[in-house]
Request: fold
Amino acid sequence: MAVKGLGQIDAEYDASNLKVGIIHARWNDTIISALVNGCIKRLTSMGVKEENIIIETCPGSFELPYATKRFYEKLHPEVNVVIPIGVLIKGSTMHFEYISESVTHAIMDLQFKLNKPIIFGLLTCLTEEQALARAGIDEGKTMHNHGEDWGAAAVEMAMKYGN
Reply:
């Protein structure tokens, strides 16, 4: 399994005044919790203050786009960037394909509808082992925690392209 990630960030950013929203699904909680923790760890290491990280939940990944939209519009319009986090693991039906594609397109569209950076924090994995590896909790075969990449991407997008 290849180890890939965000790569080198092209600038240093003072993220001390950045406000970041994280909204995560509760389905696949062990994996989600590791991803959220990795995201927070990276955000704070880049200067985001813990009190400026706002975390909310929703039932599952299918609900992430609407929950993200309402999170920003109704609950927290002050955030500079939102990171929806979810995990989809393929089962034996077409459910995975429908949900993956729908959520992917909806999250992408939200960036333009909200005029706000929305980070793609959705793992779409064929197996639970892949999801565990991407969350950094796969018993000795760890790739890396993708939540850390999402935190770094959030800082860069908000600082470089945000309003």
Notes: The two ends are 38 Å apart (CA to CA). The mean pLDDT is 92. The helical segments are 29-45, 64-75, 95-114, 128-134, 146-161. The domain at 70-86+105-155 is CATH 3.40.50.960 (Rossmann fold).
